[in-house]
Specification:
This protein is α/β, with parallel strands linked by helices. About 45% of the residues lie in helices and about 15% in strands. The chain contains 21 helices and 17 strands. The strands form five sheets. The chain has an eight-stranded mixed beta sheet with strand order 12-10-9-8-6-15-16-17. Helix 13 runs parallel beside helix 19.
Length: about 500
């Protein structure tokens, strides 16, 4: 905090003839308005005329714009300078608190085998018969032991694949072993299994329910769309098996992957989620890994196509909420949390420095350790650059090595070209693995980055909606941020107004 305040004091523009001090911020012109965001993530949208007065030191203390800018710490006066800079430092520290922690999300690749042959499979899964790609008990035990070396008080272990249920004995025994180890460690321990639900048994369901294990799964829309993208290796329809088995598992959370086959049918996809009783969807763009690269011509689309589909889908979801159907678009909710609150999110792609290795880590079936799932996917494509070590090493050796230092050094948006001047700096993050994939440089090139262009355009639209300040839409957005049903919040609001 002291270094932050010292730097700001040196950088501040201040004239003895002016009545206020301008604090550091980034900005973006849009027609007749200007969006301003300071280093603590506070934001305002003001008119160009007021903006010109502001940076020319022509605002008066009586002006409404002056009061708004002062309240959000875009300006201050000499007498309050130290106090305001201290408040900004505290807000920035809150936003960056995740960087002080060790990884709390630990992903384990139980096997690369899968009973699905998804056209876009980022993990490059393999045939069900290739058991040499299963994690052994020796590696599983060492993985659990390594995970509990993390200083973090919160430990979430997520099993991935392939299809992890195909190596059920290792999944089950490692969960039991982790709970045994935790009797001494006493951490906040939880589990997730990522499964397509195609071959889940009663024994597995009973175990999952007994140990309160979360289920994460995939659903790409109605039957035809789902079966087109997620072809089964053993059944006629992967969709039919999903429907059959999802009814047996409580509270499973499906994940959508948007491809060329469903990008123009997202309203139908959303309707399917609603009909099946789900109340969230993540409008996830296609990532350039594994089979998604091999089948690029069949699956890919432009950033502009994604944004057009995203806008239409978000408007549709907002209308559903207005009709009393509580339904959340998770990607928008992540951004809204960063915009409307002083807190970060656990989403690795929207962290600076990158959350890869800081917030999450993945342990491959062969015992190799990677900072993120995408790094493991990159290794499957033949490039093992991001391997941090193996489960045979100590936690400190793995997470204090050269690769982790390079990730942190090259993923602070505040110092990255283009990002350092971007108005969305405090809401976005750096995807070092994708940067490396596309440019062979961890910092990458924002001028050619689809990740950067997509996030900018999404944030443009979110701020467009925020600037409209529609009462219903704002209430819906706040329900997403606070994770409370919109209908419940609306009822409370009506009761307060009546009183």
């Amino acid at each position: 905090e002291k270094l932050f305040i010292t730097k700001l004091l040196k950088d501040l523009r201040f004239s003895k003839l002016s009545s206020y001090i301008i604090l550091p911020f980034n900005f973006k012109y849009s027609d007749d308005t200007v969006l301003m965001v300071n280093q603590a993530g506070e934001w305002l949208i003001i008119s160009r005329n007021d903006f010109d007065k502001f940076h020319s030191y022509k605002l008066e203390a009586e002006d409404e714009c002056y009061k708004r800018l002062k309240a959000k710490h875009f300006l201050t006066i000499t007498e309050e300078k130290e106090q305001v800079l201290g408040l900004l430092a505290i807000k920035l520290r809150t936003r960056k608190a995740f960087a002080e922690c060790s990884p709390n999300l630990h992903m384990i690749v139980a096997t690369l085998r899968c009973n699905c042959l998804c056209k876009y499979c980022h993990a490059s899964s393999i045939d069900m018969s290739a058991k040499q790609y299963d994690m052994s008990w020796e590696i599983a035990r060492k993985t659990i032991d390594l995970i509990f070396q993390s200083p973090s008080e919160d430990i979430k272990i997520e099993y991935q694949g392939g299809e992890p249920l195909l190596n059920w004995d290792i999944v089950k025994e490692s969960i039991l072993y982790a709970k045994f180890v935790n009797k001494i460690a006493r951490k906040n321990l939880s589990f997730v299994i990522c499964t397509n639900l195609m071959q889940i048994s009663k024994e597995q369901i009973d175990f999952i329910k007994k140990h309160s294990i979360e289920i994460s799964t995939s659903l790409d829309g109605p039957k035809q769309l789902h079966d087109t993208n997620r072809k089964s290796r053993i059944f006629e329809s992967s969709y039919d098996k999903f429907i059959e088995n999802s009814k047996l598992v409580r509270d499973c959370a499906p994940l959508l992957t948007i491809t060329k086959t469903n990008i123009n049918k997202l309203r139908s996809v959303i309707d399917t989620y609603v009909e099946l009783g789900y109340n969230t969807i993540f409008l996830r763009a296609l990532n350039p890994y594994g089979n998604a690269i091999k089948n690029k011509s069949e699956l890919d689309y432009s950033t502009e196509e994604f944004i057009s589909a995203y806008k239409d889908a978000l408007q549709y979801i907002i209308e559903l909420n207005k009709k009393g159907i509580d339904f959340v678009e998770c990607y928008t909710a992540l951004f809204l949390t960063r915009i409307l609150t002083p807190f970060s999110t656990g989403f690795v792609d929207l962290q600076s420095p990158s959350g890869a290795g800081l917030s999450g880590v993945i342990y491959n079936y062969d015992g190799k350790v990677y900072p993120a799932d995408e790094a493991r996917m990159l290794a499957r494509m033949g490039d093992d650059y991001f391997c941090l070590g193996t489960v045979n090493e100590k936690f400190s050796e793995i997470f204090n090595g050269q690769i982790m230092h390079s990730i942190v050094k090259n993923s602070c948006v505040e110092t990255m070209p283009v990002c350092s001047e971007c108005v969305y700096q405090q809401y976005c993050g750096a995807d070092v693995i994708r940067n490396y994939l596309e440019t062979k440089d961890l910092m990458g090139d924002r001028r050619k980055s689809g990740f950067c262009r997509k996030n900018k355009m999404v944030l443009d639209y979110i701020f467009y909606l925020l600037n409209q300040n529609d009462e219903q839409i704002m209430d819906i957005f706040w329900s997403w941020v606070t994770r409370r049903p919109y209908g419940e919040m609306k009822l409370e609001k009506n009761q307060r107004q009546t009183c």
